[in-house]
Amino acid sequence: MIMKLIVIVMMKYSLIVLFVCTGLGTLCAQEKQEREYRIQKAAFPTKAFEVIEGKLEGAKRVKYYKEMDSAKISYEVKFKKNRLWYSVEFTEEGALEDIEITIKEADIPNDSYATIRTYLKENFTSYRIQKIQQQYIKESPVEQTLKHAFQNLMIPSLNYELIIDGKKDKAYQKFEILFDAEGKFKKSRKSLPPNYDHVLY
Asked: According to the 3-state scheme, what is the secondary structure of 60-85?
């Protein structure tokens, strides 16, 4: 009888531990934790460099990075051109993913920004905007994406990515929030501080 009771108790607590671990795993999956390494141009995928090479003419402060998170590996080149800061991201295989341009609040159409602000006010007791990027997702053909981004065109398919310090309960946390061209919410995730190792290899 005692042995039977012990087995039942152990099974009960095993299930509790399983549920807790599963919950923690789900929670962690909703957070972005990435490592970003500075790399030499020679370590950047050849296919990716061929895509962006023509756009680097006249660019300043060109830097190459390799990024790793729990889900994928990607490559990114960051630079300044015509007074704009660009970030161009590629897959591990060298295929273009997106192009982002750092912008200011005033660069977003008034109606779109009003919609964004409404979302922020409704979902955070307080917030501080750290960075805003205008995002161009890869289209087909890729040349179309490059044209839209480097002419800084306002097209219906662009997104706005906001990095904010947002407060919901007691403490501030960093969030990356994506909105469409009209300012409508698309997705959000917590962003843990990136690990910038700045390793050159």
From this structure: EEEEEEEEEECCCEEEEEEEEECCEE
Write out pLDDT tens, residues 89-142: 999 999 999 999 999 999 999 999 999 999 999 999 999 999 999 999 998 899
The one-character DSSP state at 112 is H
Q: How far apart are CA 3 and CA 162, in angstroms?
A: 58
CA distances from 178 to 9, 117, 183 (A): 46, 13, 9
Grouping H, G, I as helix, E, B as strand and the rest as coil, residue 37 is strand
Domain residue limits, the chain: 1-32, 34-196
Please give the CATH architecture assigned to the domain spanning 34-196: Roll (3.10)
Pairing relation of β-strands 195-196 and 34-39? parallel
- pTM, entire model: 0.78
Give the integer Cα–Cα distance in Å for 60 and 82: 9
